[in-house]
Amino acid sequence: MGLLWSMRPVPETKPGRRFQKNNVQTTVKVVISVYEGHLANGFKHHTPITSASVERSSLTSGVHRVEVIEEGIKGTLFIPPGSGPFPAVLDLSGGLGGRDEHHSALLASHGYVSLALEYIGFLNASGKLEHVDNTYFETAFAFLKKHPKVCPDKVAVMGMSFGVSVTLAMAAYSEIIQPKCVVCVNGFHIMPLDGSLADVYAALQQNVDKIRYDEKMRFIWRDLLLPIPDDPTKKVEMGKIKCPVLLIVGEDDQNWPSSESATDMKKMMEKAGNSHLLTLLSYPGAGHLIEPPYSPHVRFSEFKLLEAKTKVMMVWGGETVSHSRAQENSWQKTLAFLEEHLYDNSRETTRC
Predict the structure, then answer these.
(1) 214 belongs to the catalytic site
(2) Which pLDDT score is estimated for 349?
């Protein structure tokens, strides 16, 4: 798979491009070509010696994709083939906004009903950005639980990047969201007690002077939330979490202080006596964008600032080989974690 995860944009393309498939219902087509000699650029002007095409799909045959716009929530529901009922995952992507369906499509292909929830980037009638409150996530979780294809007592939450703080806060405080387990990828636990997304955004805006830049003036955000506060009222109370937690960390994350946050979370859980619920996977040389395996490593790319409605170049971090190995290993461990806690080590869905 090295031919896939080591891919780079050709030099003449626009800088900051990120290899990303928006439409999960169609396959990714990759053409592998062999040329005479070494080519640094100008591939289009040369005839390859030979070529082969491969196709990759996020959806297995029979998975149903359903648009969800009801009960005040917006998202996409993916349902595996079969009669069910199935375990389920509430999928909270990162701070880019919109709807990232890639993880949910793959999870449905592995036997989980998954709801890719849209929760960032909503604009009101005047065009101003609005932040959803905690009730929004509770409504989404309740919607998933009562779906006829879902085992109501086997629902997990998966948060990536910005979605991690929401995942942890809901698991710790919500009386409605009581997940069977949670998966968190490269995020943080910094959120005021009884706080919301609006509070997190406000804290970030207060620390804009901590933004750093690399040698090409690309944004590095990880210092926005450093140092990790000592005040427990400014962090999710990890001792209140009562379900298994899988925490995935890229040690070269340049977007969030995920390593420092993970270390503090572990200490908090050890002090509270619930550290037996924590599984921590920390990967040296891995950056922020830990995607499912065999997707090209992206060290930096263009990013839209929702508040300012402008685009900047963001540094995500990671070294290609180490990052790609982390993507493969963490995805295998994620599937094993969900299998253990949602399927009770059995694929007999009649147990639901």
Answers:
(1) no
(2) 47
